[in-house]
Each structure stands twice: as C-alpha cells, then as structure tokens.
Amino acid sequence: MHQQIYVNLPVKDLPRSRAFFEAMGYSFNPQFSNEVGACLELGPNLYAMLLTEDFARGFTSKPLVDATTATEVLVCLSCESREQVDSLVAKARAAGAAVPREPQIHGDFMYGHGFEDLDGHIWELACMTGSPA
Fold first, then answer.
1. Where exactly are the structural domains of the chain?
2. Contact 82, 111 (CB under 8 A)
3. Euclidean distance between CA atoms 105 and 86, whole angstroms
4. CA–CA dist 87, 35 (Å, integer)
5. How far is CA 69 from the centre of its chain?
6. Residue 115: beta bridge partners?
7. Hey, which end of the chain has fewer CB within 10 Å, N or C?
8. Is pTM, for the whole model, over 0.85?
9. Nearest to residue 82, comparing CAs of 51, 103, 99?
C-alpha cells in the first residue's frame, strides 16, 4: 500500500542539523533539499525531512513541540546488528548528541539503544535477533 515514509522534524538550525547527520554517515537528497528543508536519507524509501521551524509551522495549525522538554515522536530505526546500533550511537555522541540511557536488552530477541539529536528528537536504534517468547 505505502511506498515511502517521510518523517517531518522541525529543527532550530538546519545547517547544524545537516552537519550532525552527515557526521553519522548519512546523506541528503539534494533534489528535495534547500535552505528551509533537507531530505535525510535513512534507507531505501525511508526519509526524514528536517524543516526549519518557520517552514514547519506552515504544515500545522498546532504549536510545534520543543523536543528538548517534551516528546513529540519516537523515531525507531532497525539495525542489522548490535555493533551497528552501538556504532551509530557512538557517532551520534561524537557529533554532539545526548545519550541519556544505557543500552537495553529485551530477552533473547532485541537489543536497543538511542540518542537525542541536537534538537532533542529521540532516535531509537534496535536490532532484532530473534522472536519474542
């Protein structure tokens, strides 16, 4: 049914946010990026649109949430291994992210960790290693 997903996230400083995600090894689609929005490529058909706060306000009549003080959304990305999870968290931390929690092990089937980006958006990373009981 659905072909792609675009998660729209307001950011305070678009060039700084771009540099953060580029430091983690991600790239941006130049065809869908400009001075008010940048298309972060997360994987095949998986995108996050980083939008300046002024531009993001044009898509909603509701106030934007300050993600440093309230949770608006939890973005969770699957990873192929625990090593990939840990590597991405380390890259995020090195690029200035907060890492407020320790890794989580959920039985024999899932390993997860995450970070808060420069604007406070929560990014969870998870590796499924089996099936829940």
1. 5-128
2. yes
3. 13
4. 30
5. 17
6. 123
7. N
8. yes
9. 103
Q: Which residue, among 83, 127, 76, has the nearest Cα to 105 in the 3D structure?
A: 127
Q: Are 49 and 8 in contact (CB under 8 A)?
A: yes
User: What would the mean pLDDT of 1-7 be, rounded to a whole number?
Assistant: 88
**Measured distance between the N- and C-terminal CA atoms of the chain, rounded to whole angstroms:** 29
Helix ranges (DSSP H) in 1-133: 14-23, 53-56, 82-94
Q: Which CATH architecture has domain 5-128?
A: Roll (3.10)
In single-letter form, the type of residue at position 114 comes to G
- In sequence order, what are the beta bridge partners of 52? 11
- pLDDT of res. 131: 65
Contact indicator for 82, 127 with CB cutoff of 8 Å: yes
Q: Which two structure tokens, joined as six digits, stand for 98?
A: 């907060």
Q: Where does residue 73 fall: left (phi above 0), alpha (psi -120 to 50 degrees), or beta otherwise?
A: beta
Length of the chain: 133
Contact 9, 64 (CB under 8 A): no
Asked if 27 contacts 45 with a C-beta cutoff of 8 angstroms, the reply is: no
- Tell me, what's the pLDDT at 72? 86
